[in-house]
Specification:
CATH superfamily of the largest domain: Periplasmic binding protein-like II
Helix content: 25-40%
Number of domains: 2
Order of helices and strands: HHEHEHEHEEHEHEHEHEHEHHHH
Shape: globular
CATH architecture of the largest domain: 3-Layer(aba) Sandwich
Number of strands: 10
């Protein structure tokens, strides 16, 4: 792939950093990166015009990777284009799909399984499919089944009779959590729909009380690695991740939707071993009539400012334009497709 040029929107004095291969992006030093974004550089102007007005990016739970990654991306896109991209805290994937389809948000993050249901009008979208496009596949979510270190839970079957948080309504976490509990044939699990932040606090309080009193016994979360509020638990009560490899394999085999059997490396959370789990790809989506300028500059910034985006969250290191086009069956926005073609993807 040819090395891309320095770019700035036509008619805009702000300059974007050089688009680089993933390897070179990760290797850039801070001083070199700063040199590439010096305002006023005249080389490599793009014929793509700057957006004509502000845009809104639907992210996710406060403290979650959608929110951290999205906030970093919005800041960079605003800097590059000179036009504000605002962020919106939401309940996650399903909420974002509805916000984007209703044009209450211009862009948003969603998991591939929720996107497929919304596009085809199945599952919780059986009353009617939604209209939206994709800008890119970004990174993968990993399902976390979290229990305190002192918990007696060592397998999914041990959740029977306990209280488990399955994520907020209208979240991708709830979609996959419900699927896991159903596939595991667990019928006596009491569920709650707390936000990630509140779920972590509830789990900590009950663990501090040695399992007595109100609170949850476990939480299920689908998110990038690491998810900060979960990582913080190691500083208080400590936690373990439950191996869900067998159920993950069953789910990945029986339903198309991008589910992949994977594992969470021990180094991510300071665990003793890697933990088999289910991975779910994420998409950055947009309303169908999003302007070409916003679509093009968002994709362009995400890849050409990847080194800067890493400062917002390590999952930016997972971005790869060669896999980013794999959003089937969700169609790519025409301007996003044009960007990938222009960059020889």
């Amino acid at each position: 792939m040819d090395r891309p040029r320095l770019l700035t929107p036509a008619g805009n004095g702000l300059v974007q950093s050089a688009g680089l291969t993933r390897r070179s992006v990760l290797g850039l030093g801070a001083a070199a990166a700063a040199a590439l974004v010096t305002p006023g550089c005249s080389r490599g102007r793009s014929d793509e015009p700057a957006p004509a007005g502000p845009a809104t990016l639907a992210t996710g739970n406060q403290g979650g990777v959608y929110n951290a990654f999205g906030s970093g991306l919005a800041k960079l896109v605003s800097e590059v284009t000179g036009m504000e991209m605002r962020t919106l805290i939401t309940n996650g994937s399903v909420d974002n799909l509805r916000q984007v389809a209703a044009m209450k948000a211009d862009l948003g993050f969603t998991t591939s399984d929720s996107a497929l249901n919304a596009y085809e009008g199945t599952g919780m979208f059986s009353s009617g499919g939604l209209k939206f496009t994709a800008l890119a596949r970004t990174y993968d979510n990993y399902v976390h089944v979290v229990v305190p270190t002192a918990s007696d839970v060592t397998a999914l079957k041990d959740l029977e009779g306990l209280t488990v948080n399955v994520g907020p309504e209208n979240s991708g976490t709830k979609v996959v959590a419900d699927l896991i509990l159903t596939t595991s044939k667990l019928r006596r699990v009491a569920t709650t729909n707390l936000s990630l932040k509140d779920a972590v606090e509830s789990l900590r309080k009950k663990a501090d009380a040695q399992g007595k009193g109100p609170g949850i016994d476990a939480l299920i979360w689908s998110g990038g690695l690491p998810t900060s509020p979960i990582a913080e638990l190691q500083k208080s009560v400590g936690f373990r991740l439950v191996d869900i490899g067998v159920v993950a394999e069953q789910i990945s085999l029986k339903r198309f939707g991008g589910y992949v059997v994977s594992s969470i490396p021990p180094s991510v959370y300071g665990l003793a071993n890697s933990v088999p789990t289910l991975a779910v790809p994420n998409y950055l989506i947009a309303r169908p009539n999003l302007s070409d300028s916003w679509a093009w500059w968002t994709v362009n910034t995400m890849f050409r400012r990847q080194n800067d985006l890493l400062a917002a969250h390590p999952e930016a290191g997972s971005l790869d334009p060669r896999s980013a086009i794999a959003t089937m069956p969700i169609p790519l926005h025409p301007a996003a497709e044009r960007w990938f073609r222009a960059n020889h993807i």
